[in-house]
Amino acid sequence: NAFKRTYHNFYEQQRYRNWIVLSILIIVECILAYFILQEVLEDNLWGSKKMQTFRLIAVTLLIPTPLLLGFFIIRLETIITEEGVFYRWFPFRRNYTMILWDNVKEVFIVDMKQVGFKWRFNNKYDETNFPGSDYALLIHLKGGKKKLVGTRKAEEMNRVLLRNSGNRYKSTLVEKYD
To answer: Model confidence over 117-140: pLDDT tens digits?
Structure first.
């Protein structure tokens, strides 16, 4: 909460932007709500048991509704300052995960369109924080671990990294990384 946004700092909030998943969730929610309303208001029972209506309401409230709400509430917050890189998944984490510049070996900005989906299926990165953006900050720690933090503001992050990370970040945007 003591973070002050200045020209030397970077702050970003990212939400999931997969409109295909969002539209599927909305369609499923609408279909289930239609069936619930049809049963409750018109008293059309699908079977001979009244409990089917309550099961349908329970399934609707337990599966698509929380996913739909999470789609709009969950966000990745990233902060880069002179001290280091801070990130958290709101509302799951109250405190930020801190990566101080003293613990960082080197950092890169990676074009995720070039990397593709292979990072999701292997253990190359120890921790990925990626809500579906085009670029990501790849952090190599001195202990050998690698962390990936997604960003949609690669140019602004590039400017702040050049200013704040010292000799750990030498280049501008890296187009391909293996």
So the answer is: 544 555 666 777 878 778 888 889
The rounded distance, in Å, linking the Cα atoms of 50 and 41 is: 13
Burial degree of 101 (CB within 10 A; 0-12, 13-18, 19+): middle
Structure tokens at 37: 């309303």
The span from the CA of 136 to the CA of 98, in Å, is 17
Q: Which distant-in-sequence residues (6+ apart) come within 8 Å of 71 by Cβ?
A: 15, 16, 21, 22, 25
Q: pLDDT tens-digit profile of 46-63? A: 555 566 777 888 888 888
Q: In the numeric block, which tokens belong to residue 143?
A: 């202990």
Q: Exposure pattern of 21-59 as b/e (b: 16+ CB <10 Å)?
A: eeeebeebbeebeebbeebeeeeeeeeeeeeebeebbee
User: Which 8-state DSSP code applies to residue 133?
Assistant: -
